[in-house]
Amino acid sequence: MRQRAYLAAAVSQTVLLLAGSNSSGAAEPAVRAQRFARLPDWVGVWQTEAGAAAVSGAGARAAAAGAASLPPSFKSCGPVGFPTIMNIPLADFMFELLVTPEQTLLVSTDGTVRHIYTDGRSHPKPQDLWPTPAGDSIGHWEGPTLVVDTIAREPGPVAPIRGSPVLSAAAHFTERLHRLDVDTLEDVMTIDDPQGLKQPLHSTIRYTRAHDLDRLIPIDCEHDRNIIGDHLGIAPPR
Q1: Using a CB cutoff of 8 Å and minimum separation of 24, what contacts does 163-172 make?
Q2: What is the DSSP letter of 142?
Q3: Which pTM value belongs to this model?
Q4: 212: Cβ–Cβ under 8 A, 6 or more apart, which residues?
Q5: Mean per-residue pLDDT of the chain
Q6: Cβ proximity of 137 and 116 under 8 Å
Q7: pLDDT in the model for residue 59
Q8: Cα–Cα distance between 128 and 235 in angstroms, integer?
Q9: H helices of 38-75, where?
Q10: DSSP state string for 193-206
């Protein structure tokens, strides 16, 4: 009898543990669903307003006017790095945003992928951090605005144009991404670098939703084409 009582107690305890495990597991998806519901809807393919305008005559002329500032060796085929990827005024350069409670992913047509972690983690410790073309990004939400903090970007020019300020590895980027309306995103960016800049750089970049595309189309780098040259009539370097 005593053994049966022990067995019954053990079975009851196991059932309670399993029930508790199941109820706990069921609660987590519900909590995550609530977090998802609070996030903004940024689904779609986006491009800079300048990129969208580049297909028009006036936009093409404006883009051509700035062609002289591009170094002859610059090619946009392949990843161009951050922050250039956020402000390329050409129609071929677009990106998609995947917004989750844990991170926001920005996937660009040139192959650049930005991971913006929003799960409360901090930047890696200095011994685990080294400069990369995209840097290391963490963020948090202030209502519908994603505030992004990026460090550890490879030293070099802010953008691949003549006269662009040169940043050090200590450059610090702050972005505030938010949607102005259903078809317009805005990125307000500040760059601080006491080693490379006399004062912070500020820029506001706007993006428009591409209604004629239902998926991201990667740039074709076959034969190492110069995409900027294709658009602006610049002959590739020889």
Answers
A1: 163/69, 165/196, 165/197, 165/201, 166/196, 167/191, 167/193, 167/196, 167/197, 168/193, 168/195, 168/196, 169/131, 170/194, 170/195, 170/196, 171/196, 171/197
A2: E
A3: 0.76
A4: none
A5: 80
A6: yes
A7: 54
A8: 42
A9: 49-53, 57-65
A10: -TTT-SS-EEEEEE
Q: Is 68 helix (H, G, I), strand (E, B) or coil?
A: helix
Decide if 116 contacts 148 (C-beta within 8 A): yes
- For residue 123 the two structure tokens come to 């930047």
Pairing of strands 184-192, 172-181: antiparallel
**Distance, CA of 218 to CA of 68 (rounded, Å):** 26
CA distances from 111 to 39, 85, 97, 135, 237 (A): 25, 10, 13, 15, 23
At position 149, the amino acid (one-letter code) is D
Banded model confidence at residue 21, pLDDT cuts 50, 70, 90: very low
Q: What is the mean pLDDT of residues 187-200?
A: 96
Residue 3 has pLDDT above 80, yes or no: no
Strand-pair category, 145-151 with 103-108: unpaired
Residue in the structure block whose two tokens are 């591409």: 210
The candidate with the shortest Cα–Cα distance to 207, out of 183, 229, 189, is 183
